[in-house]
Design a protein that fits this description.
The complex is a heterodimer of chains A (about 210) and B (about 280).
Chain A: E1 2-5, E2 10-14, H1 18-30, E3 36-41, E4 45-50, H2 57-64, E5 82-87, H3 94-101, H4 105-114, E6 117-122, E7 129-133, E8 147-150, E9 154-158, E10 161-164, E11 169-171, E12 174-178, E13 199-204
Parallel strand pairs in A: 5-13
Antiparallel strand pairs in A: 1-2, 2-4, 3-4, 6-7, 6-13, 7-10, 8-11, 9-10, 9-12
Chain B: E1 3-10, E2 13-17, H1 37-46, E3 55-59, E4 63-67, E5 71-77, E6 89-91, E7 96-98, E8 107-112, E9 116-117, E10 143-146, E11 168-175, H2 184-192, E12 194-197, E13 205-209, E14 224-225, E15 230-232, E16 240-242, E17 249-250, E18 254-258, H3 260-266, E19 274-279
Parallel strand pairs in B: 11-19
Antiparallel strand pairs in B: 1-4, 1-10, 2-3, 3-8, 4-7, 5-6, 5-8, 9-10, 11-18, 12-13, 12-19, 13-16, 14-17, 15-16, 15-18
C-alpha cells in the first residue's frame, strides 16, 4: 500500500488490486482513524477525507501506515444479504456486447445472472455503483461515442464493471437491460441501494 | 408567524448553500456547500447566526430581495454596490436589498439573521449543481422563510476582510497524488506560468487556460477520490481546479492541491483573471 498526498484535508491510499481496496475499505469504514470524516473507495485507492480542524495528513498517515489490506478479511461482505436486481435484458447494446464477448445474447444474460456481484465503489452520480463480478472475466470497452441521455434504471457494462444508472444522465457504458428498482431514493435511508460492499444478484425479468 | 423575504430578481445564478453534506462520498454524493467557505462563515457570524445556517450564494450580483417583514441582513465575499457589505443592516418591511454586479470577485454571500429555512436533503440545504441534489436555484417570485434562532450579534459591526483579487491572484500549491505522472519541467511550468481563468468555470471547478502540461507517462488512471482544491490535468493539459461541486471521483491525474484556505479566494476568480500557482508548504 502506498500513501499519497491529497491536500490538507485528504490522504490517498493506493492498493495493487480491487480486492485489496475492498478489504482496506472494510477496515477503515468500520473503524475510521481519528479525524477522518469520510472514506471513499475507488478502483485502486481509498481516499481518507480529514477534518483539518482536528487532525493533519501526517497524523493520519502514522495511524494507517501499518495497515495491510489483508487485515480486513473482506469485512462486511455478507452473502446472506443479497440485493436482487430484476433486469429486462433488452438493452440497445446487448448485441454489440455479445459480439465483443464472442457469444450470443442469451449467453450474455446467462453470464450476467450466473454469479454474485459486489459493489466496489460509487461515483459518477449519486448512487451509481461500480459492481465487479465474482465469476467470469468481463472486459467491455465503453461506447465510442457516449449517449447524451441514458434512461434511469439502465443496466450497463464498461471495463470490468457493471452498473445501473440511478437517474437520466449522459453515459458511455454499454446498455444491456433495464430495471424498475429504485437505485437512488432520497426518501429511503440509506438512499443508495448499491452502496460499497453490497452483494448483488441480477435476475432475468420478462416485460 | 415566520418572517419572509421575496425574490424580486434572482440574478444569473443564486443558490442556497451551507457547509454541505459530509460523509457520503462513498455513495457518490459530494460535499457541495458554499464555494467560498470563509466568506459564507463570516456572513453568518456577522448576523449572529449559528454555524451552518443556510445563506445565499449569489453569482455575479443581480439579486433583488424584498423584505416582507423586518430582517437583519449582510453580504460578504464579492462586494456588490448598494448592499450592506461586511457589516449587518436592518431591512424594514417593504425594503429592497439590491445587489448590483460586483466590481471585483464573483460570489457574494447573503446571510439573514435567523438563517433561511428550507428543506434539507441528506442533512444539508446546499444546491449541488453536479450531483443534482438540494433545492433548485432561486427563481423570481420565490418566497423564503427566515428562521427565529440566532445567537448574540457580534460586537464588531464591520469586519476587516481583504477584497477579492482585481487582476492577478497568487495561491500556494503542494504536490498531489499524481505529481509523478509529470516531470519536473511540467511542474515548473505549472508553478511559474500565469494562467487565465476560462469562461467555462462554474461551481464544479475553475478551468485554466495557458500553456498545456504534458504527462511523462502513458496509460489510464483508474478513477480515484478527489477533493476541493485538486488540480486535475485532463488530456488537454489545461488544469481544472475543483471547487465545491466537484465530482467525487475522477479519472485524470491530480498533479497538485491548492492550499485549502486559498481555494476560497479561487472561488472568487472571474473569467479573464490571472492566476499564479506558487509552490508552497502544505499546511
Amino acid at each position: 500500500m502506498r500513501v499519497l498526498p491529497s491536500g490538507a484535508a485528504g490522504l490517498l491510499l493506493e492498493c495493487d488490486t480491487l480486492d485489496e481496496v475492498l478489504a482496506l475499505y472494510g477496515v477503515l469504514e468500520a473503524d475510521p482513524p481519528e479525524g477522518v470524516v469520510d472514506v471513499v473507495p475507488a478502483a485502486r485507492t481509498v481516499l481518507l477525507v480529514l477534518d483539518p480542524a482536528t487532525t493533519t495528513p501526517d497524523r493520519v498517515r502514522s495511524l494507517v501506515e501499518h495497515l495491510e489490506p489483508g487485515d480486513g478479511q473482506a469485512v462486511g461482505l455478507d452473502d446472506e444479504q443479497v440485493v436482487e436486481v430484476p433486469v429486462v435484458y433488452d438493452g440497445e447494446d446487448l448485441e454489440d456486447v455479445a459480439e465483443l464477448l464472442g457469444c450470443d445474447r442469451g449467453e450474455v444474460v446467462r453470464r450476467h445472472t450466473s454469479g454474485l456481484w459486489t459493489v466496489a465503489f460509487c461515483g459518477f452520480a449519486p448512487g451509481f455503483g461500480y459492481l465487479t463480478a465474482d465469476e467470469g472475466d468481463w472486459s467491455i470497452p465503453r461506447r465510442k461515442s457516449p449517449r447524451t441521455k441514458v434512461p434511469p434504471g439502465s443496466v450497463a457494462l464498461a471495463g470490468e464493471f457493471s452498473g445501473v444508472y440511478p437517474r437520466e444522465s449522459p453515459g458511455g457504458w454499454q446498455l444491456i437491460g433495464r430495471t424498475e428498482l429504485a437505485i437512488f431514493d432520497l426518501d429511503r435511508d440509506p438512499p443508495a441501494l448499491l452502496a460499497p460492499e453490497t452483494r448483488v444478484r441480477f435476475v432475468e425479468d420478462h416485460p | 408567524m415566520s418572517r419572509h423575504v421575496v425574490v424580486e430578481s434572482s440574478g444569473p445564478l443564486t443558490t442556497l448553500q451551507d457547509e454541505g453534506r459530509s460523509g457520503r462520498a462513498a455513495i457518490g454524493i459530494g460535499r457541495s456547500g458554499a464555494c467560498d467557505r470563509a466568506s459564507y462563515r463570516l456572513a453568518n457570524r456577522l448576523v449572529g447566526n449559528h454555524p451552518g445556517a443556510v445563506a445565499l450564494e449569489v453569482t455575479y450580483g443581480g439579486l433583488v430581495l424584498r423584505a416582507e417583514d423586518e430582517v437583519t441582513v449582510v453580504t460578504t465575499g464579492a462586494r456588490c454596490p448598494g448592499a450592506p457589505h461586511n457589516g449587518p443592516a436592518r431591512l424594514r418591511a417593504g425594503d429592497l436589498l439590491r445587489l448590483a454586479a460586483p466590481v471585483t470577485g464573483l460570489r457574494t454571500y447573503v446571510a439573514v439573521r435567523g438563517g433561511f429555512v428550507v428543506d434539507h436533503v441528506l442533512g444539508s440545504a446546499a444546491t449541488d449543481v453536479l450531483g443534482g441534489l438540494g433545492p433548485e436555484q432561486l427563481a423570481d417570485g420565490d418566497r423564503l422563510a427566515v428562521g427565529q434562532h440566532a445567537g448574540e450579534l457580534p460586537d464588531t459591526d464591520l469586519a476587516a476582510v481583504a477584497e477579492p483579487a482585481e487582476d492577478l491572484l497568487e495561491v500556494r500549491v503542494g504536490a498531489g497524488p499524481r505529481r509523478d505522472w509529470f516531470d519536473d519541467g511540467a511542474w515548473r511550468l505549472l508553478t511559474t506560468q500565469e494562467y487565465v481563468v476560462s469562461g467555462d468555470s462554474n461551481r464544479v471547478g475553475v478551468r485554466l487556460e495557458g500553456e498545456p502540461l504534458e504527462r511523462s507517462r502513458e496509460g489510464e488512471l483508474p478513477s480515484e477520490g478527489m477533493l476541493r482544491g485538486a488540480l486535475q490535468i485532463p488530456p488537454s493539459g489545461l488544469p481544472v481546479l475543483f471547487l465545491a461541486d466537484h465530482p467525487v471521483t475522477g479519472g485524470y491525474p491530480v498533479i497538485g492541491y491548492v492550499d485549502d484556505t486559498d481555494v476560497d479566494r479561487c472561488a472568487q476568480l472571474r473569467p479573464g483573471l490571472r492566476l499564479r500557482l506558487r509552490p508552497g508548504p502544505r499546511r
